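User: Structure please.
Assistant: Input sequence and predicted structure:
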Amino acid sequence: MKNHLEEVYKQILPYIHRTPVLTSHLLNEITDCFLYFKCENFQRMGAFKMRGAIHALLHLTEAQKARGVITHSSGNFAQALALAAKSLQIKAYIVMPETAPIVKKDAVKGYGGTIIECPPTNEDRERYTQRLIQEKGLTFIHPSNDLKVIEGQGTAAMEIIEIYPNLDFLFVPVGGGGLAAGTILATQHFSPKTQVVGGEPAWVDDAYRSLKSGKIENHSNAPTIADGLRTVLGDINFPIIQNGIDSIIRVEEEEIISAMKLIWERMKIIVEPSSAVAFAALLKNKAEYKNKNIGIILSGGNVDLKNLPF
C-alpha cells in the first residue's frame, strides 16, 4: 500500500498545489502544544477535495470521460470535480442543495460545471443524481465514499508527514469521511505512531455515533455553520475510520466560530467553518494533548464573505 500511495501522489501532483504548513507561537501557547497547520485552504479551488477529485477522474476510461461525470455536493467537492473535470476536458454535472452558499455555486459555474439544484436532503441529492445518470450515462464520483477519492485525499497527510515525521496526532474534520479515511491510510503507512483524531459538529454527529454503535448512523441534517460536514459516512470509508481513528471529538457551534475566529485573527488566513472544526476539537480537549506535536488539516477556505459568523 505504501508504494501504491506514493504512485497516487505522483499521478495527481501535476494537477494540485503542494500546500504550505504554518505555525503560530501564540496558538502553541494557547494550547500548550506544538501545532502544525496543513493549509489546504491554499489548494486549487480552495480545499483538499481537489486531490481526490483529480485522482478519481484520472482513472476513468476514455468512454466514461466522453460521456461526462456527476456528483452531489454542498460545495467543496462540487468545485473540486468541476475544476478537475475542466483540467481534463471532461463535462461535469453537479447536484447541489438549494441552500449551498452562493459563493460555492458561483465557483462551480466559474469552473465550467453544470449545476442542478435540489432540496437540501441526502435523499433528494441521491434521487436527482440517479435520474441524470440514467438520462445521460454519466459516471458518478462520490465526494467521500470512493476509494480513488479517499486515496487522493490522503496525500495531504503524506505531505505534512514528509515535513514533520514526528507528529503524535493529526486532527481532521469529519463529514462524509473521505479526508479522515485518507488521512488514516497515509498515517498507517508513512507514520504509524501518528494517531488520527476527528472533529465533528455536535449538531450532525453521525460519525461519532457510528463509532459507538458499530454501524453507519444518519443525522437530522441540522443547519450547522459547518455546512460542508452535513454528510454521512459510507460503506467504503467507514471501516477504515472504524479501525483506524483514535477518537472523534464533538464541538458546539460557538466553539467552531471561536476556533475560526482565532485562525483568522492570529494566523491571518481565511478558513471556512468546516475547516475550523478540527482546531475547535483540539481547543476543547487541549489538556489531553499537552506538549504533543499535533498536525491540523485546515480543509478549506471557501467562505461566503457576506455571511460571516463574526
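The radius of gyration is 18 Å.
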